[in-house]
Amino acid sequence: MRVLSIVEDSIVDGPGLRTTIFFAGCTHYCRGCHNPESWKINGGTEMSIDEIMRKVKQNPLNDITFSGGEPMLQITELKQLAKECKQLNKNIWCYTGFLWEELRAAQSDEFTQLSMYVDVLVDGRFVLEQKDLSLLFKGSCNQRIIDCQKSLKEDRVCLINE
Predict the structure, then answer these.
(1) DSSP readout, the chain?
(2) 2-154 has which CATH code?
(3) What is the pLDDT of residues 56-79, one digit of tens each?
(4) Which residues, given as ranges, of the chain have pLDDT below 50?
(5) So where are the chain's domains?
(6) pTM of the model
């Protein structure tokens, strides 16, 4: 997997202390992106799932966040990483510039399999004109914080605190 960085003890990428894995590569190129260095598809460092999991296990109290870049560009490997994190009883958040509906349509089987391990998906591209620093865990008003398990069960997008 192409990984830009792994940040431990993050408090801005979901509730509590989190280990945030920033994946390299993004095709959205959002104006005002807080992480434009993540856009390069071949950026960062190549890491195996085992290497990433060693970092995750170093901080057993932290939950996990997948961010980027765009994690969904590596969805095949991301499914396996999420599965291994979930086996450690980690709460998993994932940020994506794609919409839930786009992912369900384009990568239906893979996205559904990934969603079985992800607790919360923050979806939608960052829109500079809708930037709001008062928002918790997202950058712009258009982004949604989705309860993955409830959404899968009800076969519709279910927002957190809905």
Answers:
(1) -EEEEEEEEESSSSSSSEEEEEES--S---TT-S-GGG--TT-SEE--HHHHHHHHHHSTT-EEEEESS-GGGGHHHHHHHHHHHHHTT--EEEE-SS-HHHHHHHSHHHHHHHHTT-SEEEES---GGGB-TTSSS-SBTT-EEEEHHHHHHHTS--BTT-
(2) 3.20.20.70
(3) 999 999 999 999 999 999 999 999
(4) none
(5) 2-154
(6) 0.95
